[in-house]
């Protein structure tokens, strides 16, 4: 762990020049005392690091301390750095590893490519944490104690024991054979098999996980994109879903369609509203989706959904009197 931190410290000084102990401590997520000890260790090992005193002082490296990564052109370097800005690595618990890797990549690039590629990536923002109204995007903060054993089992091909809380049910233990991890709109899913049957688990519903020593029973190679599409098709055609008929203002069509599992029929009414027949995962999912539309949407059927929405509206009126 310390060796990785020493490398990161050197790379920070290479790329950003003179830095204070406080800034280095913040970047490396350690104390300033630890930074000072690391500086001493680097100096003792022959790394040309020196201290500059004064108001604008700090630590720096003597010029010329670098290696180059050959074979990458400007567009390849830029694509790699842009990929490093995505939140997928963070979702899989690899955020700090990705940050360290990006430091090494940038440091190893030839100077002209490193300068232009880094400048370009500063002008692209991918998946910010909030929208223009400062509303946080839906994300799931999954503990490292859950992500780490699942990730390990997937990467090393070992069986996995998870305690899973399916909606409306008591958490239970189950042993699965992991196939891969998929992140979609900041939601993470584990694709696996259980007793030979396909299973898909949402990581936010895993309350405990343990990688087992025995090897997983799974193919040596997998087309994860194809597996995901096939499971999505089966999910959308499932028999336990709720089919809803609704009237929607045209301007809110996408809001409803994007939350539905599938759209079965659509036609335009005389008043300009759209009559849609859509499927939802269950009644609670349907109620939530229609409620988000306010008066721009109206559930026509089933009656149970209309009743649920009416009761919710009545409770809201009563609350605000």
From TrEMBL:
Cross-referenced InterPro entries: CBASS_pafABC_assoc_protein, DeoR_HTH, HTH_11, PafC-like, WCX_dom, WH-like_DNA-bd_sf, WH_DNA-bd_sf, WYL_dom
GO function term, MF aspect, one: DNA-binding transcription factor activity
Superkingdom per UniProt: Bacteria
Protein's UniProt keywords contain DNA-binding: yes
Signal sequence region: none
HTH deoR-type domain ranges (all copies): 2-61
Keyword tags: DNA-binding, Transcription, Transcription regulation
UniProt keyword DNA-binding, yes or no: yes
Record's protein name: Putative DNA-binding transcriptional regulator YafY
Organism: Stackebrandtia endophytica
């Amino acid at each position: 762990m310390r060796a990785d931190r020493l490398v990161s410290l050197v790379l920070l000084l290479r790329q950003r020049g003179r830095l204070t102990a406080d800034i280095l401590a913040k970047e490396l997520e350690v104390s300033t005392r630890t930074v000072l000890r690391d500086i001493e260790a680097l100096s003792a090992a022959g790394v040309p690091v020196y201290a500059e005193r004064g108001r604008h002082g700090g630590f720096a490296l003597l010029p010329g301390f670098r290696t180059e990564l050959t074979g990458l052109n400007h567009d390849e370097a830029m694509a790699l750095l842009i990929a490093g800005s995505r939140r997928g690595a963070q979702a899989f618990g690899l955020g700090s590893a990705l940050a360290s890797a990006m430091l090494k990549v940038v440091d190893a690039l030839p100077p002209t490519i490193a300068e232009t590629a880094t400048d370009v990536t500063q002008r692209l923002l991918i998946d910010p944490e909030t929208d223009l109204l400062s509303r946080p995007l839906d994300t799931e903060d999954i503990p490292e104690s859950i992500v780490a054993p699942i990730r390990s089992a997937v990467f090393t091909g070992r069986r996995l024991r998870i305690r899973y809380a399916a909606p409306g049910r008591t958490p239970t233990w189950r042993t699965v054979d992991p196939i891969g991890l998929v992140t979609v709109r900041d939601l993470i899913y584990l694709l696996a098999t259980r007793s030979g049957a396909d299973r898909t688990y949402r990581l936010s519903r895993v309350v405990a996980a343990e990688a087992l020593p025995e090897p997983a029973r799974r193919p040596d190679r997998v087309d994860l994109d194809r597996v995901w599409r096939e499971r999505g098709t089966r999910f959308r055609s499932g028999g336990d879903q709720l089919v809803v008929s609704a009237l929607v203002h045209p301007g809110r069509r996408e809001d409803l369609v994007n939350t539905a599992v599938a759209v079965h029929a659509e036609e335009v009414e005389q008043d300009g509203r759209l009559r849609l027949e859509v499927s939802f995962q269950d009644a609670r999912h349907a109620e939530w989706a229609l409620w988000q539309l306010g008066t721009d949407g109206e559930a026509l059927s089933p009656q149970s959904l209309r009743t649920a929405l009416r009761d919710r509206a009545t409770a809201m009126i009563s609350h605000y009197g």
